[in-house]
Amino acid sequence: MTDAEYDPFGEQAVSSELAGVMPVEFVAFHSQNHVAYLEYAHFELGGEAAEVVVEDVFTFLLKV
Hints:
By secondary structure, this protein is an all-alpha fold. It is 66% helix and 0% strand.
C-alpha cells in the first residue's frame, strides 16, 4: 500500500472475533486511538512500516 492509497477508515479497527476475547478497556482504547496512531506513523514512517509499528505497539499494550 502506498501513501496515496492509505485510508485509515478503510478497515475496522478491531475484528469482531477478537473483540469478544480482548478486555473491554483495550478494545475501547484501540477503537478510539488506532486511527490517530496510524496517521502519525504514516506521517513519520510512511508505507507498510507504519502499519507494522502500530500493530506492534498495540500488541505490546495488550500484553502489558
